[in-house]
Amino acid sequence: MPRARREDAPGSIHHVYARGLEGRAIFRDAADRADLLRRLAEVLPEGGARCPAWALIGNHLHLIVQTGEVRLSTLMRRIHTGFAVRFNLRDGRQGYLFQSRFGSRRVCEDGDLAAVLRYVLRNPLEAGLVQSLAALELFPWCAYGALLGVRPALPFESVDDALAVFDPDSARARTRLRAWMVAPDEVPVVTRAGAVATQRELDQLIRATCAQLGVIEADLRDGRRTREVSLARTRVCQRAIRELGLRPTDVARKLAISESAVSQALRRRHAVSEDGGPSPS
Question: Are 64 and 120 in contact (CB under 8 A)?
């Protein structure tokens, strides 16, 4: 089956992610991470692209990229090819470094962008590379410090674009960004039955489901239709609505899918049980 063409147009914003082949490390030390940043600093500005946020983890990376005239695929091909060639030469290895082509999902609205910003920036914290948001401010392999003004921005970092999501005034925007990095887990969501669930409960459900099925959370948002991703998406929809009592519109927004897709998931006869196997819904 041919690959679907990526949605792209000048000015489009994308959540981009890439992982190492078979989950292997693509960043072994600071030199590898610095090399990737040098390539971002060269390729993105040359292509007229902007990067509001990014994070480098041991075996994967996340970027938010707003494209200019040069297509996202062209930008990422230059970045990945150069990085992989250097990595292989340094390590004396051959073959692919990255698992398949990079993944991406188009970000369509400000609310979605705010959520993706938080997800990308918190990745080092969720991965255990730092132990607190205070430590994340000083973590050199993430955009958070630049957005808060703790360190100077790198040539490819579009700090103003990220802050504008929160407030036109940079000082107020930084205050709101700090709050946003903490608060959404506790924001109440009124359910259809009038009870109250929280974003934390929904996030925990998504995280647990992905862990049980070996799925990366970002894959739930990019429209992938592998068996594991489809099962995870179905289970999240069914449990979020039937057990947490959330509205389809809230679940659809969280998973970046349509309400009709949520409805289809609810009509499926089987969900995924706690132990990962199928069970009657």
Answer: yes
Which of 39, 34, 45, 10 is CA-nearest to residue 157?
Answer: 45
* Protein fold of 13-182: Alpha-Beta Plaits (3.30.70)
pLDDT of residue 2: 43
Indicate the burial class of 38 (C-beta count within 10 angstroms; 0-12, 13-18, 19 or more).
middle
In one-letter notation, the amino acid at residue 123 is: N
At 77 the pLDDT is: 86
Cα 146-79-121 angle, rounded to 5 deg: 30
Cα(185)–Cα(187) distance, integer angstroms: 6
**Helix or strand or coil: residue 173?**
helix
Taking the model in full, what pTM does it have? 0.63
**How far, in Å, CA of 172 to CA of 175, rounded?**
5
Please, which residues bridge with residue 119 across strands?
none
Please give the single-letter amino acid code of residue 98: F
**In which residue ranges of the chain is CATH 3.30.70.1290 found?**
13-182
Contact 167, 110 (CB under 8 A): no
- pLDDT score recorded for residue 53: 96
Asked if the model's pLDDT at residue 116 lies above 50, the reply is yes
Block residue for tokens 């255990």: 128
- List every span in the chain annotated with CATH 1.10.1750.10: 187-280
CB 59 within 8 A of CB 24: yes
For 187-280, which CATH class?
mainly alpha
Q: Return the closest-CA partner of residue 31 out of 51, 56, 68.
A: 56
The 10s digit of each residue's pLDDT in 187-212 is 434 444 434 456 677 888 888 888 88
